[in-house]
Amino acid sequence: MNKTARQKILDVASELFYNEGIRAVGVDKIVEVSGVSKGTLYRHFPSKDDLIIAYLEEQNESSWVLFEDAISVYDGAPRMQILAIVESIKTSLTEPRNRGCVFLNAQAEFSSQHPIQNLVQERTHKLRNLLQRLTKEAGATDDTLADQLLLLINGALSTAPIMGADIAGEQLKKVSVCLIDLHLNQ
């Protein structure tokens, strides 16, 4: 299958950004590795920031497809849907060459005024809203469980490269079950 020049650039940039860091990768390296001209890159992405945003948007869409697929299996069973989200994150942590969360990594590289911060915040709010909805459907009386799960998820994502993905993923699952039992078995 022939990729469009835009997709080829985005694929190369995505791999380089994730593996080496967004700030560490220059446009010249993306041009070199992708084999497209600088003019072609700038025709599709007028600035590096536009390319960064496209990268994060594509990563966001992919992660939401995973979440939606995971919870669709347990339609009508919100407790199982929460656990399915946790399991999908645990699985993503143990993928080969995992370097942590794309969004937390990007957030750490840029100031609070950079446009990527809005994307990261929107994604976090969307995940929080999903967790709030599911925890309430499962019987939670407030947002405490959703907020605790969100903190736990972000903690696992940020510590997996340090502690090891297996440990972070296993603890994410175990502590999530404990929190769910604590809040929902009252």
Automatic annotation (TrEMBL):
This protein's record includes keyword DNA-binding: yes
SUPFAM superfamilies given in the database record: Homeodomain-like (SSF46689), Tetracyclin repressor-like, C-terminal domain (SSF48498)
Keyword annotations of the record: DNA-binding
HTH tetR-type domain ranges (all copies): 3-63
Signal peptide: none
Annotation: DNA-binding region: 26-45
Pfam family, one: TetR_N
PANTHER family, sorted: HTH-TYPE TRANSCRIPTIONAL REGULATOR RUTR, HTH-TYPE TRANSCRIPTIONAL REPRESSOR BDCR
Protein name: TetR/AcrR family transcriptional regulator
